[in-house]
Specification:
Shape of chain B: globular
Number of helices of chain B: 24
Shape of chain A: globular
Largest sheet of chain B: none
Largest sheet of chain A: 4 strands, mixed
Number of strands of chain B: 0
Strand content of chain B: under 5%
Order of helices and strands of chain A: HEHEEHHHHEHEEH
Helix content of chain B: over 70%
Number of domains of chain A: 1
CATH topology of chain A: CBS-domain
Helix content of chain A: 25-40%
Oligomer: heterodimer
Distance between the termini of chain A: 9 Å
Chain lengths: 159, 456
């Protein structure tokens, strides 16, 4: 079993010029395989399907979180409506400015253990899968690896 | 004197260590100003060169006060940082900032003025960088709550911290260095600098009122956001807070009386830091000690050694002779030259390397003027004192002149950029330069009136 056998082929992706509003909408409506709508992250690609970064729900939380709150314990002094006000301000920021650019990727021919290795060592729950030309062909999710592990536990004949 | 200068200068030109030390000194300062390499790396490497090339013996660099590391400054800085690091998690600073905003009743300018005063007072007791790091996050929160431009609040905080820090021995690194070199006490600084700093702060409040007073407006309902904040929620660890305040009280009392008790300031601070570490009951001093700004500390150590090298070879002496030549030994003129030159120099370069160089230069000047005196009699000669105060005032207040003039400014500009509001170099200077000139002008009048007219 290799990465390409278990990945979900790439359907939706973001472009660096997309606004956060557009990105949020796509994150809500994108489908992951047969499961219900909504994904937690999407790859950001250029026009040639080259990977530029990844935008996750966490990045969107960071986009509305003022940087000064990292520096001091000010949570108690936030007011009702603060998140909503910052969300309005952040709506037109672009994906390119907010995506994470240090992305952990795997190759489509990587073994499953190599994928697990990357996921655990870098604490990520999903990795973009690249083909030989470094174009993104799919996403490999922790959940699908878990399903494969379960299958192996119950089926002793899996090679 | 002119003839003597020439003959003495000629001796240096035949001397190889003179040229090695001078080259290292100039190259290091140029690299520090260019910011191409981190200043701490430059300072340490140049210090290493001074030793390897035998300009200084290691023993001189580490154990001789005149040529090497001033441990009084180093230990004082480290100790104060440890005390603040232990105090920070208690929430005391959040409490002070929120309380100040509420005192302002949600009025944007009133809050700005109160923040300026609080920042100045805190800067006088802590170092400026710490104060700015503690005040600006709350400032940004308050500006967001009131939906006003945060930039004026940030800039005015930086200015206030540089002005306030001028008032005391521990307020700004130049003062710590000057105090150690001239063996001045905490109360000397309070007595000679605090009065003029108070005058400057009053003028400063009027200046910011004039610049920003009318521009800052908010809506009534937003003021309620401030008034409903409960500052008591900021206090995270009341027990540790009490311990910290007790130790801070002991340290401040120690500073006030250190001259009388014949303790160096570093002794007082080191004792306070150790006492608070003990009281905190920590089994992992690792974290608290790791948070000391080691790059700054090593920057100081490197600079002391670099300057020690050029002191030893006579460059500093030669420079002091040039200045005396220029001012013809007129002490008032020398004071004014030192003050204004220090202000502009500190606006362009870091005031720490600047003062590290000026300190021995002033001592050398004193040796030229009073060759028979030594020790405290020389360092604190009544005619020399206005020079020390002029250096302190110029170097501290000069920090306001540009965005890179003081560490507090660099931090404020960085924070503002992170909050999405870039303050350009020239925008900062457009406010900073006039404020620097106003405060240095006030200082000039003060020095002239107090030391050359009234003579007190």
């Amino acid at each position: 079993m290799r990465a390409k056998d278990l990945m979900v082929p790439l359907v939706e992706h973001l472009k660096p010029g997309n606004t956060l509003k557009e990105a949020a909408n796509l994150l809500r409506t994108a489908r992951r395989g047969e499961e219900r709508a909504g994904v937690k992250a999407l790859p950001v690609l250029d026009d040639h399907n080259k990977l530029l970064g990844i935008l996750s729900i966490g990045d969107i939380l960071k986009a509305i979180y003022p940087s000064y709150m990292y520096l001091m314990d000010l949570g108690e002094f936030a007011w009702d409506g603060m998140v909503e006000a910052f969300a309005k301000k952040a709506a037109d920021k672009t994906v390119g400015d907010l995506m994470s650019t240090a992305v952990i990727t795997v190759n489509e021919d990587s073994t499953l253990m190599e994928c697990v290795d990357h996921m655990l060592k870098n604490s990520v729950k999903r990795v973009p899968v690249l083909n030989k030309d470094n174009a993104v062909v799919g996403m490999l999710y922790e959940k699908d690896v878990f399903n494969e592990i379960t299958r192996a536990m119950f089926n002793k004949e899996t090679p | 004197m002119t003839l003597e200068t020439v003959t003495r200068a000629e001796v240096f030109f035949l001397n190889l260590p003179f040229w090695i030390a001078t080259a290292i000194f100039i190259a290091a300062y140029a690299l520090i100003v260019s910011e191409k390499i981190h200043k701490t790396v430059v300072a340490l490497f140049a210090a290493g060169l001074m030793l390897v090339l035998k300009v200084l013996e290691q023993n001189e660099a580490f154990h001789v006060e005149e040529f090497g590391v001033d441990w009084n400054v180093i230990i004082l800085l480290i100790s104060m940082m440890v005390i603040i690091n232990l105090m920070r998690p208690t929430g005391a600073f959040e409490y002070i900032a929120i309380k100040s905003a509420k005192l302002g009743k949600g009025e944007p300018f009133r809050i700005m003025a109160i923040f300026a005063v609080v920042t100045a007072i805190l800067s006088a007791l802590l170092d400026n960088v710490t104060t700015v790091l503690l005040i600006t996050p709350v400032t940004l929160l308050i500006a967001d709550a009131l939906d006003v431009d945060p930039v004026p609040y940030l800039i005015s905080c930086a200015f206030a911290s540089n002005i306030g820090g001028t008032a005391t021995l521990i307020g700004d690194p130049p003062n710590i260095m000057i105090a150690s070199k001239a063996q001045l006490s905490f109360m000397d600084f309070i007595y000679h600098l605090a009065p003029v700093v108070i005058v400057m702060m009053v003028v400063y409040i009027f200046v910011i009122k004039f610049i920003w007073g009318k521009k800052l407006v908010t809506r009534e309902e937003l003021k309620q956001r401030i008034m409903t904040m409960n500052e008591n929620e900021a206090i995270k660890d009341p027990v540790m807070l009490t311990k910290s305040l007790v130790v801070l009280g002991i340290v401040l009392t120690g500073f006030i009386f250190h001259g009388m008790l014949h303790f160096q300031p570093a002794t007082v601070a080191l004792f306070g830091a150790a006492l608070l570490l003990l009281l905190s009951g920590t089994h992992e001093p690792h974290h608290v000690l790791a948070e000391v700004e080691w790059p700054t500390i090593f920057f100081f150590m490197g600079l002391f050694i670099i300057v020690g090298g050029v002191v030893k070879v006579g460059l500093i002496k030669w420079m002091s002779l040039q200045i005396l030549d220029l001012t013809q030994g007129n002490m008032f003129a020398t004071s004014m030259v030192v003050m204004w030159f220090s202000a502009f120099a500190s606006a362009i370069v870091d005031n720490i390397p600047y003062v590290a160089t000026m300190n021995p230069l002033i001592v050398d000047m004193a040796r030229q003027l009073w060759p028979d005196l030594s020790g405290v009699q020389l360092l604190q000669h009544p005619d020399l004192m206005p020079l020390w105060w002029s250096l302190a005032l110029g170097a501290c207040l000069g920090g306001n002149g540009s965005a890179i003039g003081a560490s507090a400014n660099v931090i404020v500009v960085g924070m503002s950029e992170k909050a999405g509001r870039r303050i350009s170099f020239f925008k900062f200077m457009a406010y900073g330069m006039p404020i620097m000139i106003i405060t240095v002008a006030i200082s000039s009048v003060y020095v002239w009136l107090r030391y050359y007219v009234l003579g007190i």
